[in-house]
Write a sequence for this structure.
């Protein structure tokens, strides 16, 4: 059983990874409905939060139905991180997660995200201070190290645990790799196999088939899988993995009618959450995958991703449902 403090996530939980501009409340709710055991918000700037930047504050919204949920924050300044913990606490997440893994230049150049992998002492100090500053569990998401020659995750994980971090999610790449190459799960397994480690160690990176999730569980012995890109436009991926765990077989991919229903609900939740303009705009990125594989679909896809009004997008969904109802998706 994987437990973050007293939050019981069950046997080998599947976690929705924090993803900027993707892991918003509507998408998290869909992933939860389709089997994610825990979800995370996209990363939120501690500096933005303390300036009360509306965009950062909006990212703190949580639906009750998506719990347990972790709010992820990033920053490198102790004072700002502590003040943002106070702000985040008020929105009552289940967990506060610290992003020590973002490889993007504008984050790293300020010493935040994966930038902190160059200063493990500061990483530990920030984590310790945040743990002491809140009653909520603090978890960490990070990478293997700064680059191939500085993979210190074994030591880092131990030290984070020692200062009270309640779980660690490890992306099996270094900062230098960005998203290139294959994620290496071996160092993550070494962390897990460290006899001193007792907090959950979640593996992340390239879990895009049920078989890979099973490998992470059975061969690498990790405590759970954090899933990012494979869920974009496929929130049902979590269900597919669980089905495979239970039966050793692949479940039927969702039918066209089910996909249209998901797309409709996704769009409606987004509109309810952030208004028509943003809701229509920000849900677009998901449709391509929702309807991937349908031949001669371009005309409909174009309408979905260029219409500015919700009623036009909904009308396109109706058309798609009528025209392609019998289309059989293959995995
Ligand atoms: C579009 C996108 C946005 C991301 N934003 C975040 C983020 O806000 N915080 C974070 O810790 N990781 C972020 N990541 C990294 C993912 O959480 C994850 O570590 C990475 O995609 C590897 O997992 P995957 O192979 O399952 O996608 C992002 C990844 C993508 C593709």
């Amino acid at each position: 059983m994987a437990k973050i403090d007293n939050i019981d996530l069950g046997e080998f939980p599947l976690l929705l990874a924090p993803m900027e501009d993707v892991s918003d409340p509507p998408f998290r709710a869909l992933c939860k409905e389709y089997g994610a055991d825990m979800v995370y918000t996209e990363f939120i700037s501690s500096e933005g939060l303390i300036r009360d930047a509306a965009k950062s504050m909006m990212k703190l919204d949580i639906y009750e139905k998506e719990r347990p949920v972790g709010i992820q924050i990033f920053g490198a300044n102790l004072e700002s991180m502590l003040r943002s913990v106070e702000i985040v606490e008020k929105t009552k997440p289940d967990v506060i997660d610290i992003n020590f893994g973002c490889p993007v230049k504008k984050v790293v150049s300020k010493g935040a995200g994966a930038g902190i992998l160059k200063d493990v002492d500061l990483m530990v100090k920030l984590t310790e201070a945040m743990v002491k500053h809140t009653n909520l569990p603090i978890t960490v998401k990070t990478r293997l190290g700064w680059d191939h020659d500085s993979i210190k995750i074994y030591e880092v994980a131990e030290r984070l645990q020692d200062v009270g971090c309640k779980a660690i999610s490890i992306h099996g790449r270094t900062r230098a790799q960005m998203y290139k190459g294959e994620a290496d799960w071996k160092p993550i397994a070494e962390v897990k196999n460290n006899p001193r480690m007792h907090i959950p160690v979640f593996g992340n990176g390239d879990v895009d088939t049920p078989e890979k999730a099973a490998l992470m569980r059975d061969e690498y012995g990790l405590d759970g899988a954090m899933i990012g890109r494979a869920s974009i436009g496929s929130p049902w991926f979590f269900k597919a993995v669980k089905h495979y765990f239970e039966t050793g077989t692949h479940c039927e991919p969702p039918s066209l009618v089910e996909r249209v229903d998901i797309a409709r609900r996704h769009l409606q939740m987004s509109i309810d959450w952030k208004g028509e303009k943003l809701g229509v705009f920000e849900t677009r990125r998901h449709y391509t995958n929702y309807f991937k594989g349908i031949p001669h679909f371009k005309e409909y896809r174009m309408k979905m991703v260029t219409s500015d009004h919700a009623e036009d997008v909904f009308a396109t969904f109706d058309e798609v449902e009528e025209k392609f109802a019998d289309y059989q998706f293959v995995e």
Summary: Residues 17-20, 22, 42-43, 72, 99, 101-102, 141, 171, 204-207, 227-230 surround flavin mononucleotide (CB under 6 Å). The longest helix spans residues 256-274. Residues 158 and 197 are 7 Å apart (CA to CA). The chain has a mean pLDDT of 96.
